[in-house]
Amino acid sequence: MITLGEVDSHRAALSLSESQARTRARTEAEAAGVVATIFDSNLPDDADLIVDALLGTGLNAVVQGTFADAIWAMNQHTAPVFSVDIPSGLNASTGQIMGSAVNAESTLTFIGLKPGLITCDGPDVCGELYFDKLALSKVERDAVPAQAQRVSYYLLTQDAPLLMPRTRNSHKGHNGHALLLGGDAGLGGAISMAADACCRVGAGLTSCATRPENVSVVLARRPECMAAGVNSGLEVQPLLERATVLACGPGLGRTSWAELLLQQVIQSDLPVVLDADALNIIASPGSQTEFSERDVVLTPHPGEAARLLDSTIADVQSDRLAAATAIAETYHAVVILKGHGSVIAGPDGRLAICTDGNPGMGTGGMGDVLTGVVAGLLAQGLSPWEAAVRGACLHSAAADMAADSDGVRGLLATDLLPYIRQLVN
Ligand SMILES: NC(=O)C1=CN([C@@H]2O[C@H](COP(=O)(O)OP(=O)(O)OC[C@H]3O[C@@H](n4cnc5c(N)ncnc54)[C@H](O)[C@@H]3O)[C@@H](O)[C@H]2O)[C@@H](O)CC1
Ligand SMILES: Nc1ncnc2c1ncn2[C@@H]1O[C@H](COP(=O)(O)OP(=O)(O)O)[C@@H](O)[C@H]1O
């Protein structure tokens, strides 16, 4: 941790106001050896560290004027920037850059980890993130309730394994039977990848209901999976009777075939994961779906979330926690709002942010694998909340392992599968 004492030979203080608090801060900084100067668009060339303590967690409007100039100057400077509490210009609650933000080399945040540091644009601007609870007692810290729980594969498995070990006497009937529905013409890969992930996460049995022409695609990729070609909703009925958990959406499309399949899924009372076009169909005008009596996980990316909320991607990304909460409340379901810092929201107001994951995951099929992972966890008896939290972290941590091994670019959804298997054991 860097202290003021260690930076006292550096002239990096910016004085932009004479309010009482700032005056006191300035007095104390000067006493520690900092030389304060009025900011005039330039920072000293010879500074070898910039301490950014310009704007804090109260920022709620676009940064303008001298503040924007100061942020620009810090970003142009060759010295690394160390941000105090939060990089100036970043919205502490949402992770949105408010016009411009400091690109910190590292950030030391205090008392509580702000959600904006770990979702949306936050991780791109805060650099290495450090946390100090300061001298506050637990009682004092608990007085301010956390907005969201930070979750990661590492945090979830510090004291216990991700999944309970199996009894030696267990058999496939104990581990659930997931039925995955989707795979319209040309999209057989999506349902096939979801099924593979469901098998690898440990579901006892995995079946697919897909277009007849995709049956061979699914079976060729994963013979352990069962695949039925279906043309109508009626043909889905016997499959539903054997399943314990459903997932619908990967490669589903939006044809009348897709709507018939989804109708069967909606009418069932089995736990279900809905993704991709299943979400787009329930978001369409006239569709009145809510799941108050059922275990449901919805996995929208920001585009699908915008359709579910009848809003825009920009609105969703401007406050990801609020968007995930609004979907969870509207549909009475657990929601994984995907993207960097995936947000998990429960209908009861619970919120978590997953800090695993990397930009290599921005490739087709990655969401289909997540659907299979969450379905496989539900099949093994996890609650929707646990399946969503553990599934999101498992999926992203597997992607991090795959990226550590061979790099971020060119990472494919199916590259995650061996790591998913390692991480569930
Ligand atoms: N091999 C396969 O069979 C594949 C099938 N896929 C299936 O094809 C379906 C349709 O995929 P499309 O890409 O056409 O449609 P999408 O609805 O997934 O994407 C359409 C648009 O939504 C927006 N969007 C998506 N992700 C976003 C994000 N993270 N942040 C902000 N905006 C975002 C973008 O504007 C994007 O162009 C998927 O739902 C999936 O089930 C894809 O998963 C790709 C691979
Ligand atoms: N930059 C990123 N950082 C972390 N995770 C990401 C990033 N980009 C994408 N992801 C993850 O990858 C997956 C993409 O899902 P989705 O958009 O539904 O893909 P598809 O429809 O192609 O299957 C989600 O789990 C999302 O959280």
From TrEMBL:
Binds 1 potassium ion per subunit. Gene3D superfamilies: 3.40.1190.20, YjeF N-terminal domain. SUPFAM superfamilies: Ribokinase-like, YjeF N-terminal domain-like. Keywords: ATP-binding, Isomerase, Lyase, Metal-binding, Multifunctional enzyme, NAD, NADP, Nucleotide-binding, Potassium. Its cofactor is K(+); Mg(2+). Residues 1-142 form the YjeF N-terminal domain. The keyword Nucleotide-binding applies. PANTHER family: ATP-DEPENDENT (S)-NAD(P)H-HYDRATE DEHYDRATASE, ATP-DEPENDENT (S)-NAD(P)H-HYDRATE DEHYDRATASE FAMILY MEMBER. In the N-terminal section; belongs to the NnrE/AIBP family. This is ADP-dependent (S)-NAD(P)H-hydrate dehydratase. It comes from Thalassolituus maritimus.
